[in-house]
Amino acid sequence: MKVLIFSASIGEGHDLPARVLAEGIEREAPGTEIEIVDSLALVNPLVRRLVLDSSRFHSKWGNRIFDLSYRLISDVPPTRWFGKKLTQFLAATPIRQAVLERKPDVVVSTYPGSTEVLGALRANGRIDMPVVSAITDLAALGYWAHPGVDLHLITHPESGEEVREIAPQSDVRCVRGLTDERFYEPRGQAKARERLDLPIEGPLVIVSGGGWAVGDLEGAAEEALGVPGATVVCLCGRNDGLGTELAQHFSAEPRIRIEGFTDRMPDWFAAADVLVHSTAGLTVLEAIMEGCGVVSYGWGRGHVRVNNAAFKRFGLAEVAGSREELGDALVRALGASGSPDISFARLPTAASAVLGLLGLADGELGDGGRARQHAGAQGDGQ
Known about the structure:
By secondary structure, the chain is α/β, with parallel strands linked by helices. It contains 14 helices and twelve strands. A six-stranded parallel β-sheet has the order 2-1-3-4-5-6, sandwiched between helices. Strands 9-8-7-10-11-12 form a six-stranded parallel β-sheet, sandwiched between helices. It is globular, with a radius of gyration of 20 Å.
């Protein structure tokens, strides 16, 4: 059997779920042929450059342009229609060619751009194998979900209602197995801090901007230092320049620690009491799984703006729209932190759901149940 996974080389938000899913499929069905393809590598180099440049959010005007373009392709019907047609025009042919050349039994997408294309190809009969969308955002799913997709895998049970509105005939399942498997293993806070050489006592606040360190990490770190006795860790991802700037700025502050790209996120979130994060997505889910309080702050643009509204609606995270609001949000998040949420470990795996389409696993896994109940959550009854 062959499984083809489309990802996109924009940080780790799409590549990580693709890798983890591939590992899960290999573990559950050894010998399955699996290939991960960077969908952005298939399109015209100019288009690829535009997509990647629009995702680099380190200037005021870049932020504003990104937010405006997102509103146009998501919120305004005529430009949304045009955006979808343009996506098909630019990417449908190379993506379809990649599928036909490899002849997979099932196609999975972890990137909304490729999901939009694959869903339309499937709906129009231009590819004849099942298509799966692996969704790692909570909301703003207009490109993550498509009526032509056979199976939508969601990581937040709260996402089910929006997906079903977009694709009412599709199968929707809440699953685990799109993030590091180590998040499902029990780990104590004290042991995690010991492994990371952190103080055992006192609050620990992690400040993160994703793989590219987007947003106001400096301001977030300064506000976090206002928490009495707090240790603050800034995760700068692959933005080495920002890491150097922050190290210089906080050189006289012993309670600040600057870290670059790391593969130890389960330990960091197990050790922490609060995460201040700017780009929503899988990172927020990972922190919730470890019982870490979350504040979304520093970059409320585009899809993050919509996810922030959903965080508030479902009671999943605090949202600070400005630095002035961040201090109070940190206090509330500290009060909300608690024990790891072990219910995620009981969900069916994404790999088993994909393999079910191939007849290699139980395809009747159901919705996966509701992973958790949050204060104020408005679920879809999964």
